[in-house]
Every structure is written in structure tokens, then in C-alpha cells.
Amino acid sequence: MPHLSMEYSGGLDSRADLPTVARAAHRVMLDIDIFPDAGIRVRLHRADIAIVADGLEENDFLAMTLSVGAGRTTEALRDAGDRIFKAVQAELTGPLSTPHFALSLEIRTVDPELSWKDTPIHRRLSGQKTE
Q1: Among 14, 25, 72, 107, fewest CB within 10 Å belongs to which?
Q2: For the chain, what is the HEC assignment?
Q3: CA-CA distances (angstroms) from residue 104 to 14, 39, 116?
Q4: What is the pTM of this model?
């Protein structure tokens, strides 16, 4: 871990370059020392049905959830969240310049007692940042 899931409303497809948004978040995550490269995942999920705020058709959203393993300080996670949020904001200036868009980020810490993993990627990338 960290795993960043981005859920977005379908109207955003025509208003933003979403692969570029995902790559921008990924690049920033690679530069954050508390995140092991092998654990980083960035996923985009389109919500085919989304009724946003007052229900206007032009309303869109991108909601990010960053799931991380336990053991990181609140300050370190706040810094990571700030950096990821700013990178995504920079790629979404168009939608953010309208009154019909909502962007959010939430960080969740996963309980290690309730998390199972089998990731050969970690073995391949051993010697890099530790989890």
C-alpha cells in the first residue's frame, strides 16, 4: 500500500484528461518517501450513474480515497495528501474553474490484522523503499 482509488462522474470524461490526472497522482506518490514504490496503485473508476449535489446534469465530481498501511504519522500523511491533492488540482483547473465540480481526497489507514496480501512485485522491487 498505498492504493489511490479515484471515482468520478461520467461527465468528467469530456472535461478532463483522466489518464493524465492518474499519472500525475502516481508521479507524486513515487516521490513520497513514506510510500514504497512496489505498493503504489492508482485506479480510476467511472460512476456510470451519478447524481451530484443539486442534480444538475453539468455537475461532476472526482472523489479520491487513499488507503495506506498503518504506522505512518498524521503529519506525514497530511503532507502526502497535500501533495497528491495539489497535483490532481493542477490537472483539473478546467472543471475546478466552474461552479459544477467537486474534488475530494480522504486518507484511510488499513488495520494490518485485517489485510491480506500476496505481492510478488514487492520481491522484485526489494531494496527500494520499505513498506
Answers
A1: 14
A2: CCEEEEEEEHHHHHCCCHHHHHHHHHHHHHCCCCCCHHHCEEEEEEECCCCCCCCCCCCEEEEEEEEEECCCCHHHHHHHHHHHHHHHHHHCHHHHCCCCEEEEEEEEEECHHHCCCCCHHHHHCCCCCCC
A3: 19, 22, 27
A4: 0.87
Phi-psi region of 55 (alpha: psi -120 to 50; beta: other; left: phi over 0): left
Locate 52 and state its grid cell. 451530484
What is the tens place of the pLDDT at every residue in 46-73?
999 999 999 999 999 999 999 999 999 9
